[in-house]
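Recall the central idea of this unit: under ordinary conditions, the amino acid sequence of a chain determines the structure it adopts. In this exercise we apply that idea directly, starting from the sequence alone.
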Amino acid sequence: MKQHPPRWGNLVFHADHDFIAFGVLFVNGLFVESFYHGVQSIEKYLKALALTIYDPSEVKTNEEWVSWLRNFSHDLEKLGNYCGQTYPYYIQKQTNSTLKRLSEFDQATRYPWVERSLGNGFSGADLPIFFAIIKNLRNNLPIKEDDYPLGIAVRGHHQFHPNVKIDNYFSKLLINTAKKIRTIFPGINDLVRK
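Accordingly, the structure predicted from this sequence is:
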């Protein structure tokens, strides 16, 4: 009997698309928009990871999940602190301060006149910590079959079926996009299951 994907996998699916958008926009010089999607990907990966801790057996309803996630809103530091109880990486000083700054940047990329107390935004110098956070998140998630968009795009095939030809337009486009993203994230293979 085929195992169903985990419910938190929906967040991973959308986080992967945000990560891919982050890379594509950055490579093409749209830095503010790029970091917005990068922040969105981190938020969704964090929420997926938090749900695996909150309800590992997935016995709670979707309504219970949504209600519980509202406690965090868009506060990445708070999500990181919750996940850090199980995965200490997220409460390390550099990671925690970056998550706090990312929460602020989320608003600043979308609205004018947002007051910032933690900095003026992000730059290429922030790419290593961005990548490190995403790498840890994606690797801490208990993904059993990485046929999420990023997994297929990076590997170029389904995880357990490498001989199945990828011939749909959308997947081929993602595979070509992953090659471009590799220019800024050479370690992109480390994000996905082999």
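The first helix runs from residue 9 to 27.
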